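Ticket #4471: structure output looks truncated?

Reporter: J.K.
Steps to reproduce: submitted the chain below (384 residues) through the standard prediction queue, then opened the result file.
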Amino acid sequence: MTNDEAHLATQVVHAGEPEERIEGAVNLPVFMSSTFEFSGENSYHDLRYIRLNNTPNHRALHTKIATLENAAAGLVTASGMAAISTTLMTVLSAGDHLLAQSCLYGGTYDFLNNTLPHLGIQTDFIDGHDPESWKSKLKKNTKAIYVETITNPLLQVAHLPEIVEFSQAHGLVSLIDNTFATPVNFRPLEIGFDVVLHSCTKYLNGHSDIVAGAVLGSQDCIDKITHRLNHFGGSLDPHACFLLHRGLKTLVLRVQCQNDNGLAMAKFLDSHPAVKKVHYPGLESHPDHRRAAELFTGFAGTLSFEPKGDATAARRFLKRIRLPIVAPSLGGVESLITRPCETSHAGLTDEQRNVLGISNGLIRVALGIEAITDLIDDFDQALG
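Returned output as attached by the reporter:
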């Protein structure tokens, strides 16, 4: 474990905890009160009220997650999509233009294509691997650029430092979804990104029992997003706050295990005669491997692969697999497996998926913390 990892392992446990234990409780209690006694607050947004995201459970999470991402401020939300949509609708207004990476989580892609245009906001998609092409997509009204650290589901790694340089050169707000990498493997603010987003449903919570999101950035930026979220009502329930707070404390241990499992499984699948292609930046054969190795301390626990035989082989594999649960989402202690065409990217047409390189035979695997030998044995028999 490096010094940075050791420091992070301490922060996930202690950052954001009450300075004085409440009634001596080792764990922060769940504050199941919708409202709190008025204490002379001067602003509507400072009134202590669940919808305003400022109960003791919320405040502890804001500090803890901000500390992990080395951010000035943080905000938790009711879901990852609440974080993404609220942030974009804070940064952008009617008449604005957004640049976004072409291969994104299906929910984000759908929001950019089908919701923002109704609000007068247009999006052009860029190739994250071709910095020379980005300038041609710029418009006078371009205000922001949006990317993912590791894309869902093809595990691509864009030219992230160049994204920062480009946004700074053209006065754009740079936003990045860091869900797949987590702050254990990468902290985007440290290379100059303005705003970091997470679906806390995934690795940050790690137990597949809540839905939550987070936004990290400067104090001024987070204040503006918080005020918008207060009006939208996308606050996180205090009990979900408690579960996320608990899950975060094992983040470093879980992600380190999932990094190891992800790399081992990717190497196994890459050498298997029944597998056509593996998408995982930890493999030296991956086109983005060198960039990922320079930026990240680990390659995460999610990968995707295409069996020989395409969709027919993929369906057969999912029927034969035993340990992983066939279900959407990722980042939990249990391994989950799914076909993106049926789950995360089901909202896209076949043509849109084909353009993005998401075949009907593509299988996404989110490795949990099970023994990798057991997982490999199971995959081997399912591919049989």
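Triage note (M.O.): checked the attachment and the full token line is present. The longest strand covers residues 142-148.
Status: closed, working as intended.
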